[in-house]
Amino acid sequence: MVDSFDKLRMEYNSIYSIINSYTGGSVICYLDGLKEAIDNGERDDLLYYLERIIKWYNDNMCAIKENGYMSDSEQQEHVETKKFLEKTFEELKDYDFSNIKKGKSERTTSNVKKKIFLSHKSSDKKYADALEKLIVGLGVNDDQLIYTSHPLHKIPLGQKIYDYLRANINDQVFMIILWSDEYLESPACLSEMGAAWVAQTDYVGIYTPAFSFGNPKYHEVPIDTTKMGAVLNGDANCKASMIEFKNRIQDFFNLEDDEQKSAYLIDEFMANIK
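Structure (tokenized):
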């Protein structure tokens, strides 16, 4: 069973994204501190930053609920995030931190240059976010995933997107192509895919449910479209393909497999793509 600490580690990026989309204020510093405390397994720091973020929510929840520019679902995300943080805070008070594997320090240095690049169209963010959550949950560091639609994996400030991608797409990058009909209409997406082909980067295709395999543009791309991929339609074949995908990520980064945690992450992914 996934414990409270692991759940917090897995949910952190979603929490950051939800809060960061609402404000860029001082609470972001608390979120940054929380991330460092999670990585280092520091109990006192972790509880301190959780308490400060919960206090921020207590001070701002009324304003969030009354914000006319936010949808009901966005407001509900904040309500659920606050409940999750409060529950986690109480559970971690008595948590045994002595057995925590300290994320950054224990990951092998040979993997530092390895990265995942999630090539996607912004209109497919729902599926890309689900992939990001799965990948990070497996133990991949934030700086080992390039995913431009997420604040923790975006292109660094001050760098030009194509220069950055050109410098980072190489044989040490595992590329995920999130195929959709909209992807095939995007010159930027096709350029990313072409760069992966030139660099002979290993890749996997993930297909949105409505993708048209008969689309002529799909059969004109330079990469091998006969390679098997996962279609995110939520059926048993999809789940089996995502388990294989999980195994490839673990093999690429030499990550240990925790069967219970992996099962939780796969089930959560399947729920998120519905």
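The mean pLDDT is 87. Residues 43-65 form the longest helix (23 residues).
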